[in-house]
Amino acid sequence: MSFYIVSTPIGNLKDLTYRAVQTLQNCDLIICEKKSKALKLVSHLGIKGVKLIPYHDSKVEKILPIVIEHINNSKNISLICDAGTPLISDPGSLLIKRLINEGIEPVPIPGPSSSISALILSGFNTSKFIFYGFLPKSSDKIKKEIDKIISHSHPVIFYTSKTDLKKIFELYKDTYEKILFSLSKELTKKYEKTIRGTLNNDNSKILNSFYNKGEFVLILHKAENSSSFSELEIKKRVKNLKAKLDSKKSVAEIIQNEFKIKKNLSYKLTLKFW
Which CATH architecture has domain 3-109? Predict the structure, then answer.
């Protein structure tokens, strides 16, 4: 009869809405991310006899005919993910696109979202924001993506792991730009916590006590009074000056004056791009 996109708790099972419970209880088929996670949820709700099918976008050709058959036979289907709102950095977008092309209109059942929960805890202006999701794995690509996206004047939401967090804080600990951060973990769970600060500070003590098992939401926001130039601009200027001047010291002094940065940082960047 209908295809539902159902948001499920991100940690606290009490966050499941009445409508979500009713929808899942009336379903004949639940398409899920991991069957083991879905089993825990349906068991908690006392749902019996419902069929669970694990899904990834690579399986869309296999799952699509099953969904269409159920819809044609007046059956109700729900799509859920392991936690939170499906499709948000989770599988499902390809399936939804194919269903729409088949003339099947999905029904959203709104609910918990770790990105929105972290955003409202950040203390940043939330009237406009950017959701990025998961960053690439290599340090070079991480920095390239962050540099590009935080040039906007809005908070940017990232999903990240402990390993990638360490890379990010290491990459930006000496940056001349003031980049604010809000970092949340284990949202809605027993050990929920949010810390805030700036990337260009030594956050090692705070972070060491913060790191452990858990899922993290990192929000970055370029401070309004932060430098409006990028390392790429400094790199180009250093290369240009190098062609005219032989002295690193002279180039560093010019960089310091033109970009209004500290003396030690201008020399460090000059050496970096020489």
Answer: 3-Layer(aba) Sandwich (3.40)
